Amino acid sequence: ANNHVFMKSCTNGFYEQHHGHHDEQPVNAAAKQLIGDALRERVENIDHEYCDPGDEDTFYVADLGEVYRQHLRWKMNLPRVKPFYAVKCNPDTKLLQLLTALGTGFDCASKAEIEQVLSLGVDPSRIIYAQPCKTKSYLRYVANQGVRQMTFDNADELRKIARLFPKAELFLRILTDDSSSLCRLSLKFGASLDSTDELLALARELDLNVVGVSFHVGSGASDPAAFLKAVRDAHVVFQQAAAYGFNFKTLDVGGGFCSDDTFEGMAGVLRSALDDYFPAHSGINLIAEPGRYYASSAFTLACNVIARRTIEDMPALNDDVMSADSNGSASYMLYVNDGLYGNFSSIMFDHQNPVAKILHADGRTLYNTAAAEETSDRSGVEYSIWGPTCDGIDRITESIRFDTVLDVGDWLYFEDMGAYTKCSATNFNGFSNDHDVIYVCSEPGAKALMGL
Ligand code: PLP
User: Fold this and answer.
1) Considering 295, 329, 351, which residue would you say is the last residue of a domain?
2) Is 312 in the same domain as 285?
3) For residue range 241-278, what is the model confidence (pLDDT) as tens digits?
4) 254 exposed, middle or buried (CB, 10 Å; 0-12, 13-18, 19+)?
5) Do 301 and 283 share a structural domain?
6) Which pairs count as long-range contacts for 159-163, CB under 8 Å and 24+ apart, including other chains?
7) Ligand 1 pocket check: which of 84, 188, 216, 420 to mutate, most ligand atoms within 8 Å of Cβ?
8) Alpha-carbon gap, residue 440 to 94, rounded angstroms
9) Closest protein CA for atom 12 of ligand 1
10) Which domain holds residue 204?
11) How many domains does the chain have?
């Protein structure tokens, strides 16, 4: 009955608009139940004394219903902006299939990503090759496949495109202020407004087809003002282009959107900037390249505790620690079968701070219970959590406390693990980087689209 209640814990406009209740509990109990059942079924069926090597490997549970809800949320907040999902964020095939059915486009960065999306039957016009510095052989490949939309930000790239794919539809990617984002991209990409005029002149001289502007305010952006400035700058470039006789048709506002409760504020600022500078009557198409927004919250990761080291009677380093640990209780180092070189690559590359919860301990599944959660004060048992490789940097959590005593064979879980995790995992030390994904679907609408 409450399939349409949202899983996120935000209490702002979106739920209120959707449900009309200010006091509605915004936790999707049905979705949690489905995810919990999938996690429990898997871990309770593993006999750690006799299982085959790898049977206790890390695995994901993905709720496609969450992706569907995120899409509705996008349409409600940015109805004029068509999302082109950034495949790099998480190229999970079922996720891509659902987005295909939902009618999104795709932002691809390489031949492999373009191939994967085309293999799903997606029309080449739904793809943007959003990589300003492209491999020559990939350019020949996209020319053959009819993938025409692509970005550029420098003169050398324009000359390369003129030789290999002169009929491409080009987006001039401009520089943004990405200083408030988690992952800065403008150090590497984007033409400054000082250079756009010259680039447009060169494109004209080379008889190239520039059709619009793109930008990216940085992945994991937190300052909505960055969108306002970027839209304003894009408008300036649209005017410059008109002076060169280009008839720009599309603005691509990139990615950067988080899936947490900052989205509505960010989208609100962007929406009004677009309404001011690119109003509906201007006839300009608006597209975006969200990645994290769609993928992050849909994936939960479960890891097995493979080893434990007891740190007896931690010696006091100073008076503070002395008083905090004056009960002299042991703390533990937990070693789990996934880490920074695996799906927690997001700690290194994406500046994330995944928070462990207890999935299964002491013969009981604790998913989504108070006992699964970190204790808020300094009570409970202290743990540090480490990955399985030989490297000392392979640490997931420096310090966390639970009321429960954890031991080898127990399971932890981490929510919001869908973005920039599996895709950048290595198999360093011979550990797998291709873990199972168990799919559940908490939305009937998504089930119907997926034929489930
Ligand atoms: N578009 C481009 C060109 C990118 O480089 C990225 C991320 O690096 C994205 C889109 C997706 O960004 P996000 O996941 O922050 O939405």
Assistant:
1) 295
2) no
3) 999 999 999 999 999 999 999 999 999 999 999 999 99
4) buried
5) no
6) 159/206, 160/134, 160/136, 161/134, 161/208, 162/206, 162/207, 162/208
7) 216
8) 11
9) 255
10) 65-295
11) 2
| Model pLDDT for residues 381-423, shown as the tens digit of each residue | 999 999 999 999 999 999 999 999 999 999 999 999 999 999 9
Distance 296 CA to ligand 1 centre (A): 13
254: left (phi over 0), alpha (psi -120 to 50) or beta: left
pTM: 0.91
Whether 435 and 361 share a structural domain: yes
Q: Given ligand 1 and candidates 107, 171, 263, 294, which is best to mutate, with the most ligand atoms within 8 Å of its CB? A: 107
Q: Which atom of ligand 1 is nearest to the CA of 89?
A: 14
- Enumerate the active-site residues: 390
* CATH number of the domain where residue 325 is located: 2.40.37.10
Q: What is the CATH number of the domain that holds 272?
A: 3.20.20.10
User: What is the ipTM for the molecules in this complex?
Assistant: 0.99
Alpha carbon distances (Å) from 443 to 20, 233, 349: 20, 39, 32
Residues 366 and 280 in one domain: no
Task: Give the binding-site residues of ligand 1, using a 6 Å CB cut-off.
Answer: 86, 89, 107, 130, 185, 216, 219-220, 254-257, 289-293
CA 51 to ligand 1 centroid distance, Å: 40
Query: Which of 295, 313, 333 is the endpoint of a domain?
Result: 295
Q: Which residues contact 412 (CB under 8 A, 6 or more apart)?
A: 302, 303, 305, 334, 336, 356, 357, 358, 359, 385, 406
